[in-house]
Amino acid sequence: MLHQCEGIIFRVCYLFTDRTQESVSDLYQEIVYNLWMSFPDFRGRSSQSTWVYRIAINTVGQLHRRRKRAPMFVQFDPVAFEDYADESHDSLVNRLYQLLDQLPFNQKSLIFLYLDGVPIKQMAALHKCSKATIMRRLHDIKQLLIQLNEKYE
Prior knowledge:
Arc Repressor Mutant, subunit A; mainly alpha; 0% strand; single chain; 8 helices; Rna Polymerase Sigma Factor, Chain: A
């Protein structure tokens, strides 16, 4: 499951860090640890990807609230990191990351799911709210991103 969902984990790590190998690796370690600890509770009521998204985003939220990192070690794949890091060399992708860095955590986590192609229904389940609420929040975030982008043009 970890191998199948590795892309999700790397995208979460890349979005919610400063995108250095060390910070991505630290967050990766923390997410994998939480996945490992939570795995006995996984009952298959949701898809594996939904469960991984939930654990990964909750991990980021916990770290965001605590503002400290516990050292937990899992094999980190620097080659996979480089594959995701290469995407940032595109100026549009880099600009998007700069705009996303200005969003608060709750908005950043929701737009991440949207950009990652997660269906609205799955987002609603992850955030424990209605599809209409998710669609409204996404609309508000898109408008905010447009405003932020216009400020810097």
